[in-house]
């Protein structure tokens, strides 16, 4: 498709007529549903929903699922780009059934400080959504005690008066997916947060990792440490773990237990939890820097092995990717966190100036930890 045509299609409006409701304009691009924040894949023939949050090997998993489709003629779909709209992977009657369930009265939620002028029966997108007021007991019970909109309301209360959060139900909560099985890949929450934090620090204009090459020297380490400390000090923990304001969202560090849906976290809602693992050995170079060993890269495929066990990916894919050891960093072991970056974050956790910052981060991360403890039987 021509790139200009594809861009222009962002303005296309789909129309579906539903019995007893009339015409609706379904939209699926909202960033507040779980599938928007966390990479999610589906296999229709398996009736499987697989969610791989960032920092649990999701980049490698994408390469493997694509290769699984190519080598074994499989049907994995990543819910991204045009595939965010289920119309692209459902038959017309299936799509109509799904939309009719999603757009039933009060299934979708719109969260705001108060009802806005366009929230009326003439708005074909929001007319069937339930309006929930930020701070109300109803809202807190459904989505959890503290969410991105609560933080945004504290930071910019006037700005929030005209904001709304369009909350689409997670796919597996709809009757259409009743006989499907949902899987969530789970990593130790604090380990995942630290790894995600290092990634998000790599995405900014003041990135401290530009000093990687000199961090083994005294002067280089001071630059490394102080630039990383400065970045953390001026970043709100809530922005990292919950989001809420306009602009870039820190989706590599988003907590999985907010927002809840109907009082349940992702860990509560998914049928099966898949343990994350990444067993890599390291060896020091002449400057004392640690690098992954080729032997360990060849011997383990980390979380990919769990997906092979579930028969989501065939061994043929691993064999194809392991023929060239140099290719492993581009497929099986993509984006391994450099140990130097982990080391400076470890030291920053002991920095007195950041004590309150880390305490708030741990408080939110513990929401995930506690929810995992309540769902151990799903592993």
List keywords for this structure.
379 residues; alpha/beta; 2 domains; five-stranded mixed sheet; three-stranded mixed sheet; 16 helices; 12 strands; 38% helix; globular
Helicity range? 25-40%
* Strands side by side in the biggest sheet: 5-3-4-9-10
What's the helix count?
16
Overall mean pLDDT:
89
* Global outline: globular
What is the count of structural domains?
Answer: 2
SSE string, helices as H and strands as E: HEEHEEHEHEEHHHEEHHHHEEEHHHHH
State the major sheet: 5 strands, mixed
Q: Your description of this structure?
A:
With 379 residues, the protein is an alpha/beta fold. The protein folds into two domains: 18-185, no CATH class; 186-378, no CATH class. Helices cover 38% and strands 12% of the residues. It has helices spanning 3-8, 34-37, 58-72, 92-102, 137-143, 148-155, 157-160, 189-201, 218-233, 237-241, 266-269, 294-299, 303-309, 315-322, 339-348, 355-373, and strands at 16-18, 22-24, 40-43, 48-51, 76-78, 109-112, 130-133, 164-167, 181-186, 272-275, 282-284, 290-292. The strands form four sheets. It has a five-stranded mixed sheet, covered by helices on one side. Strands 7-6-8 form a three-stranded mixed sheet, with no helix packed on it. It starts with a helix and ends in a 6-residue tail after the last helix. 33% of the residues are buried.
């Amino acid at each position: 498709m021509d790139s200009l045509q594809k861009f222009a299609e962002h303005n296309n409006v789909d129309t579906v007529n539903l019995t007893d409701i009339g015409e609706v304009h379904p939209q699926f691009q909202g960033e507040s549903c779980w599938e928007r924040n966390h990479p999610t894949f589906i296999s229709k023939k398996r009736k499987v929903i697989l969610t791989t949050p960032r920092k649990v090997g999701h980049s490698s998993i994408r390469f493997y699922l694509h290769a699984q489709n190519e080598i074994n003629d499989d049907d994995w779909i990543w819910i991204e780009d045009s595939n965010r709209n289920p119309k692209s992977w459902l038959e017309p009657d299936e799509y109509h059934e799904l939309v009719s369930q999603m757009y039933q009265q009060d299934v979708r939620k719109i969260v705001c400080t108060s009802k806005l002028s366009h929230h009326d029966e003439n708005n074909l997108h929001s007319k069937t959504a339930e309006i929930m007021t930020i701070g109300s007991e109803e809202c807190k019970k459904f989505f959890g005690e503290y969410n991105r909109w609560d933080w945004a309301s504290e930071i910019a209360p006037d700005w929030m008066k005209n904001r709304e959060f369009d909350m689409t139900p997670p796919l597996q909560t709809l009757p259409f997916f009743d006989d499907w099985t949902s899987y969530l890949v789970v990593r130790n929450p604090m380990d995942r947060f630290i790894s995600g934090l290092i990634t998000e620090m790599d995405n900014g204009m003041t990135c401290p990792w530009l000093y990687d090459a000199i961090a083994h020297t005294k002067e280089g380490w001071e630059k490394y440490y102080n630039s990383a400390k400065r970045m953390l000090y001026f970043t709100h923990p809530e922005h990292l773990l919950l989001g809420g304001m306009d602009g870039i969202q820190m989706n590599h560090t988003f907590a999985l237990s907010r927002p809840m849906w109907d009082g349940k976290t992702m860990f509560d809602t998914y049928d099966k939890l898949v343990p994350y693992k990444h067993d890599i050995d390291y060896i020091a170079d002449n400057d004392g820097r640690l690098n992954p060993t080729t032997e360990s890269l060849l011997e383990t495929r980390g979380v990919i092995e769990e997906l092979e066990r579930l028969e989501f990916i065939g061994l043929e894919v691993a064999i194809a990717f392991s023929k060239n050891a140099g290719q492993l960093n581009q497929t099986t072991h993509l984006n391994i966190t450099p140990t130097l970056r982990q080391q400076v974050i470890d030291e920053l956790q002991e920095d007195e100036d950041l004590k309150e910052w880390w305490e708030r981060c741990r408080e939110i991360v513990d929401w995930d930890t506690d929810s995992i403890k309540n769902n151990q039987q799903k592993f």
